[in-house]
Design brief:
The chain is an alpha+beta fold and about 290 residues long. Helix content is about 15%, strand content about 55%.
Protein backbone atom coordinates (compact mmCIF):
# COMPACT_ATOMS: atom_id res chain seq x y z
CA UNK A 1 0.00 0.00 0.00
CA UNK A 2 1.14 3.54 -0.68
CA UNK A 3 1.01 6.17 2.06
CA UNK A 4 -1.40 8.24 -0.03
CA UNK A 5 -5.16 7.56 -0.07
CA UNK A 6 -6.24 5.75 -3.21
CA UNK A 7 -9.72 4.79 -4.37
CA UNK A 8 -10.22 1.02 -4.38
CA UNK A 9 -13.95 0.58 -4.79
CA UNK A 10 -16.49 2.09 -7.10
CA UNK A 11 -19.64 3.57 -5.51
CA UNK A 12 -22.28 0.94 -4.90
CA UNK A 13 -25.96 1.81 -4.77
CA UNK A 14 -28.59 -0.42 -3.24
CA UNK A 15 -32.26 0.24 -2.78
CA UNK A 16 -34.73 -0.80 -0.13
CA UNK A 17 -38.31 0.04 -1.03
CA UNK A 18 -40.70 -0.12 1.89
CA UNK A 19 -44.34 0.38 1.10
CA UNK A 20 -46.36 1.85 3.93
CA UNK A 21 -50.11 1.42 3.52
CA UNK A 22 -52.61 3.67 5.27
CA UNK A 23 -56.31 2.89 5.42
CA UNK A 24 -57.25 6.56 5.17
CA UNK A 25 -55.65 7.06 1.73
CA UNK A 26 -55.91 5.19 -1.52
CA UNK A 27 -52.20 5.36 -2.48
CA UNK A 28 -49.18 3.80 -0.79
CA UNK A 29 -46.37 5.77 0.84
CA UNK A 30 -42.86 4.45 0.95
CA UNK A 31 -39.28 4.89 2.17
CA UNK A 32 -36.56 4.25 -0.40
CA UNK A 33 -32.90 4.39 0.62
CA UNK A 34 -30.07 4.81 -1.89
CA UNK A 35 -26.78 3.85 -0.25
CA UNK A 36 -23.43 4.85 -1.78
CA UNK A 37 -20.23 3.44 -0.28
CA UNK A 38 -16.77 4.81 -1.10
CA UNK A 39 -13.50 3.47 0.29
CA UNK A 40 -9.87 4.57 0.38
CA UNK A 41 -6.80 3.03 2.00
CA UNK A 42 -3.75 4.53 3.67
CA UNK A 43 -0.84 3.44 5.83
CA UNK A 44 -0.32 4.91 9.28
CA UNK A 45 2.48 3.75 11.60
CA UNK A 46 2.87 0.52 9.64
CA UNK A 47 -0.85 -0.30 9.74
CA UNK A 48 -3.23 -0.51 6.80
CA UNK A 49 -6.24 1.74 7.41
CA UNK A 50 -9.49 1.50 5.48
CA UNK A 51 -11.57 4.68 5.37
CA UNK A 52 -15.24 4.10 4.55
CA UNK A 53 -17.57 6.92 3.50
CA UNK A 54 -21.30 6.14 3.48
CA UNK A 55 -23.89 8.42 1.91
CA UNK A 56 -27.55 7.60 2.54
CA UNK A 57 -30.35 9.34 0.63
CA UNK A 58 -34.07 9.02 1.35
CA UNK A 59 -35.64 8.99 -2.10
CA UNK A 60 -39.09 7.94 -0.91
CA UNK A 61 -42.05 10.17 -0.07
CA UNK A 62 -42.07 9.44 3.69
CA UNK A 63 -39.52 10.54 6.34
CA UNK A 64 -37.43 7.90 8.10
CA UNK A 65 -36.89 8.06 11.87
CA UNK A 66 -34.10 7.00 14.25
CA UNK A 67 -31.73 6.35 11.34
CA UNK A 68 -28.37 4.79 12.18
CA UNK A 69 -25.65 3.44 9.88
CA UNK A 70 -23.52 0.44 10.93
CA UNK A 71 -20.47 -0.78 9.01
CA UNK A 72 -18.76 -4.15 9.39
CA UNK A 73 -15.40 -5.14 7.88
CA UNK A 74 -12.75 -7.67 8.81
CA UNK A 75 -14.70 -8.91 11.83
CA UNK A 76 -14.97 -5.39 13.27
CA UNK A 77 -18.11 -3.28 13.51
CA UNK A 78 -18.73 0.45 13.99
CA UNK A 79 -21.92 2.48 14.31
CA UNK A 80 -22.62 6.11 13.47
CA UNK A 81 -24.73 8.60 15.37
CA UNK A 82 -28.52 8.35 15.38
CA UNK A 83 -30.29 10.79 13.04
CA UNK A 84 -33.71 11.43 14.57
CA UNK A 85 -35.43 12.31 11.27
CA UNK A 86 -34.22 11.86 7.70
CA UNK A 87 -36.68 13.73 5.52
CA UNK A 88 -37.54 13.17 1.89
CA UNK A 89 -34.50 13.84 -0.36
CA UNK A 90 -32.31 14.46 2.68
CA UNK A 91 -28.81 12.92 2.86
CA UNK A 92 -27.02 11.34 5.81
CA UNK A 93 -23.21 11.05 5.60
CA UNK A 94 -20.95 9.07 7.94
CA UNK A 95 -17.21 8.34 8.00
CA UNK A 96 -15.57 5.22 9.48
CA UNK A 97 -12.01 3.88 9.78
CA UNK A 98 -10.86 0.26 10.18
CA UNK A 99 -7.52 -1.47 10.70
CA UNK A 100 -7.49 -3.97 7.83
CA UNK A 101 -4.16 -5.75 8.10
CA UNK A 102 -5.50 -8.92 6.47
CA UNK A 103 -3.37 -12.03 6.25
CA UNK A 104 -3.61 -12.39 2.46
CA UNK A 105 -4.07 -10.06 -0.47
CA UNK A 106 -7.40 -10.27 -2.26
CA UNK A 107 -11.03 -9.15 -2.00
CA UNK A 108 -12.85 -8.66 1.29
CA UNK A 109 -16.47 -7.68 2.03
CA UNK A 110 -17.83 -4.50 3.62
CA UNK A 111 -21.36 -4.75 4.98
CA UNK A 112 -23.43 -1.62 5.62
CA UNK A 113 -26.61 -2.04 7.65
CA UNK A 114 -28.98 0.90 8.15
CA UNK A 115 -31.47 0.68 11.02
CA UNK A 116 -34.50 2.98 10.91
CA UNK A 117 -38.19 3.25 11.73
CA UNK A 118 -41.34 4.56 10.07
CA UNK A 119 -43.78 7.11 11.49
CA UNK A 120 -45.37 4.38 13.62
CA UNK A 121 -41.92 3.51 15.08
CA UNK A 122 -41.96 0.09 13.41
CA UNK A 123 -38.27 -0.95 13.12
CA UNK A 124 -36.68 -1.82 9.78
CA UNK A 125 -33.23 -2.35 8.32
CA UNK A 126 -31.58 -2.02 4.91
CA UNK A 127 -28.42 -3.74 3.65
CA UNK A 128 -25.63 -2.79 1.26
CA UNK A 129 -22.69 -5.10 0.48
CA UNK A 130 -19.54 -4.14 -1.43
CA UNK A 131 -16.09 -5.67 -1.93
CA UNK A 132 -12.68 -4.03 -1.55
CA UNK A 133 -9.37 -4.94 -3.15
CA UNK A 134 -6.61 -5.39 -0.60
CA UNK A 135 -3.15 -5.06 -2.16
CA UNK A 136 -4.43 -6.32 -5.50
CA UNK A 137 -6.60 -9.32 -6.22
CA UNK A 138 -6.76 -12.20 -8.69
CA UNK A 139 -10.04 -13.03 -10.40
CA UNK A 140 -12.13 -15.68 -8.63
CA UNK A 141 -12.92 -18.94 -10.40
CA UNK A 142 -15.89 -19.80 -8.18
CA UNK A 143 -19.01 -17.68 -8.53
CA UNK A 144 -22.80 -17.42 -8.15
CA UNK A 145 -25.42 -17.65 -10.85
CA UNK A 146 -27.92 -14.81 -10.62
CA UNK A 147 -30.68 -16.05 -8.26
CA UNK A 148 -34.37 -15.48 -8.78
CA UNK A 149 -36.27 -13.11 -6.53
CA UNK A 150 -38.51 -14.68 -3.89
CA UNK A 151 -42.09 -13.84 -2.93
CA UNK A 152 -43.28 -14.93 0.52
CA UNK A 153 -46.04 -14.23 2.98
CA UNK A 154 -44.50 -16.16 5.86
CA UNK A 155 -41.73 -18.39 4.50
CA UNK A 156 -40.19 -19.72 1.31
CA UNK A 157 -37.04 -21.31 -0.11
CA UNK A 158 -34.23 -19.20 -1.56
CA UNK A 159 -31.59 -21.10 -3.54
CA UNK A 160 -28.12 -19.95 -4.55
CA UNK A 161 -26.41 -21.79 -7.41
CA UNK A 162 -22.60 -21.96 -7.15
CA UNK A 163 -20.32 -22.86 -10.07
CA UNK A 164 -16.62 -23.66 -10.01
CA UNK A 165 -14.24 -23.18 -12.92
CA UNK A 166 -11.27 -23.88 -10.64
CA UNK A 167 -8.88 -26.68 -11.46
CA UNK A 168 -8.67 -27.72 -7.82
CA UNK A 169 -11.12 -28.83 -5.17
CA UNK A 170 -11.88 -25.94 -2.79
CA UNK A 171 -13.43 -25.47 0.62
CA UNK A 172 -15.66 -22.40 0.57
CA UNK A 173 -17.81 -20.57 3.11
CA UNK A 174 -21.26 -19.57 1.87
CA UNK A 175 -23.29 -17.01 3.76
CA UNK A 176 -26.80 -15.66 3.32
CA UNK A 177 -27.02 -12.08 4.62
CA UNK A 178 -30.51 -10.96 5.63
CA UNK A 179 -32.04 -7.81 7.09
CA UNK A 180 -33.29 -8.07 10.66
CA UNK A 181 -36.88 -8.53 9.49
CA UNK A 182 -36.08 -11.91 7.92
CA UNK A 183 -34.75 -15.15 9.37
CA UNK A 184 -33.08 -18.20 7.84
CA UNK A 185 -33.82 -21.61 9.34
CA UNK A 186 -30.65 -23.38 10.38
CA UNK A 187 -27.18 -21.94 9.87
CA UNK A 188 -26.95 -18.88 7.61
CA UNK A 189 -23.21 -19.67 7.14
CA UNK A 190 -22.30 -23.03 5.62
CA UNK A 191 -18.98 -24.61 4.71
CA UNK A 192 -18.96 -26.80 1.62
CA UNK A 193 -16.41 -28.49 -0.61
CA UNK A 194 -16.75 -28.00 -4.35
CA UNK A 195 -14.93 -30.02 -7.02
CA UNK A 196 -13.50 -28.69 -10.31
CA UNK A 197 -16.25 -27.73 -12.80
CA UNK A 198 -18.99 -28.64 -10.35
CA UNK A 199 -22.32 -26.92 -9.71
CA UNK A 200 -24.00 -26.89 -6.31
CA UNK A 201 -27.29 -25.48 -5.05
CA UNK A 202 -27.39 -24.00 -1.58
CA UNK A 203 -31.00 -23.58 -0.42
CA UNK A 204 -32.15 -21.64 2.63
CA UNK A 205 -35.61 -21.50 4.16
CA UNK A 206 -36.32 -17.79 4.61
CA UNK A 207 -39.12 -16.70 6.95
CA UNK A 208 -40.72 -13.32 7.51
CA UNK A 209 -40.25 -12.22 11.12
CA UNK A 210 -41.42 -8.59 11.09
CA UNK A 211 -41.41 -7.23 7.51
CA UNK A 212 -44.60 -5.53 6.35
CA UNK A 213 -46.61 -6.74 3.37
CA UNK A 214 -45.61 -4.72 0.32
CA UNK A 215 -41.94 -4.32 1.28
CA UNK A 216 -39.05 -5.49 -0.90
CA UNK A 217 -35.98 -6.60 1.04
CA UNK A 218 -32.50 -6.71 -0.52
CA UNK A 219 -30.62 -9.88 0.54
CA UNK A 220 -27.11 -11.00 -0.35
CA UNK A 221 -25.24 -14.21 -0.93
CA UNK A 222 -21.53 -14.15 -0.08
CA UNK A 223 -18.94 -16.84 -0.71
CA UNK A 224 -15.32 -16.69 0.48
CA UNK A 225 -12.38 -19.01 -0.03
CA UNK A 226 -8.57 -19.04 -0.16
CA UNK A 227 -5.91 -20.40 -2.42
CA UNK A 228 -2.19 -20.47 -1.68
CA UNK A 229 -1.74 -16.70 -2.05
CA UNK A 230 -5.14 -15.01 -2.34
CA UNK A 231 -8.40 -14.51 -0.47
CA UNK A 232 -11.50 -14.39 -2.66
CA UNK A 233 -14.91 -12.89 -1.94
CA UNK A 234 -17.85 -13.09 -4.37
CA UNK A 235 -21.29 -11.62 -3.74
CA UNK A 236 -24.71 -11.65 -5.37
CA UNK A 237 -27.89 -9.74 -4.59
CA UNK A 238 -31.55 -10.66 -4.94
CA UNK A 239 -34.86 -9.48 -3.50
CA UNK A 240 -37.38 -10.99 -1.11
CA UNK A 241 -40.81 -9.46 -1.65
CA UNK A 242 -43.36 -9.66 1.14
CA UNK A 243 -46.91 -10.19 -0.06
CA UNK A 244 -50.22 -10.71 1.71
CA UNK A 245 -51.32 -14.26 2.46
CA UNK A 246 -54.52 -13.75 0.48
CA UNK A 247 -52.61 -12.75 -2.65
CA UNK A 248 -50.26 -15.70 -2.27
CA UNK A 249 -53.22 -18.04 -1.77
CA UNK A 250 -54.96 -16.62 -4.84
CA UNK A 251 -51.77 -16.99 -6.87
CA UNK A 252 -51.32 -20.60 -5.74
CA UNK A 253 -55.00 -21.34 -6.41
CA UNK A 254 -54.69 -19.83 -9.87
CA UNK A 255 -51.70 -22.04 -10.63
CA UNK A 256 -53.33 -25.18 -9.21
CA UNK A 257 -56.63 -24.62 -11.02
CA UNK A 258 -55.31 -22.79 -14.06
CA UNK A 259 -53.03 -25.54 -15.35
CA UNK A 260 -55.73 -28.28 -15.47
CA UNK A 261 -58.22 -25.77 -16.89
CA UNK A 262 -55.75 -24.76 -19.58
CA UNK A 263 -55.09 -28.38 -20.47
CA UNK A 264 -58.83 -29.03 -20.67
CA UNK A 265 -59.34 -26.08 -23.02
CA UNK A 266 -56.43 -27.26 -25.17
CA UNK A 267 -57.92 -30.78 -25.29
CA UNK A 268 -61.35 -29.43 -26.35
CA UNK A 269 -59.79 -27.26 -29.06
CA UNK A 270 -57.83 -30.22 -30.45
CA UNK A 271 -60.97 -32.38 -30.29
CA UNK A 272 -63.00 -29.73 -32.16
CA UNK A 273 -60.32 -29.40 -34.87
CA UNK A 274 -60.24 -33.17 -35.37
CA UNK A 275 -64.04 -33.33 -35.62
CA UNK A 276 -64.06 -30.53 -38.19
CA UNK A 277 -61.41 -32.28 -40.28
CA UNK A 278 -63.33 -35.58 -40.04
CA UNK A 279 -66.56 -33.89 -41.16
CA UNK A 280 -64.78 -32.30 -44.11
CA UNK A 281 -63.38 -35.66 -45.21
CA UNK A 282 -66.85 -37.25 -44.95
CA UNK A 283 -68.36 -34.45 -47.04
CA UNK A 284 -65.70 -34.86 -49.75
CA UNK A 285 -66.21 -38.64 -49.80
CA UNK A 286 -70.01 -38.23 -50.08
CA UNK A 287 -69.58 -35.82 -52.96
CA UNK A 288 -67.54 -38.41 -54.87
CA UNK A 289 -70.30 -41.07 -54.62
CA UNK A 290 -72.22 -41.23 -57.97
Amino acid sequence: LTPHPSPICLPLSSILCLLLFFSSVSSARYITFDTTVRTTTKTEQGKDILAVSVELTNNGDEPAYSVRIRVKSGGRSQAGLVRQILGVKEILREEFEFDISFGKLGKYPILVRTDFADANQHPFSALSLSLINYRGAASPKIFFDKPKSLEIAKKGELCLKIKSLDEKERDINVRLILPRELDAAGASVRKIRISPREEKDMCFTVSNFSALAGSAQAVFGLLEYDDEENHFSVSVMTTVKIIEREKLARKSKFIILGIPAGLLVLFLVILAIRRRRRNRRNIRQNNKIP
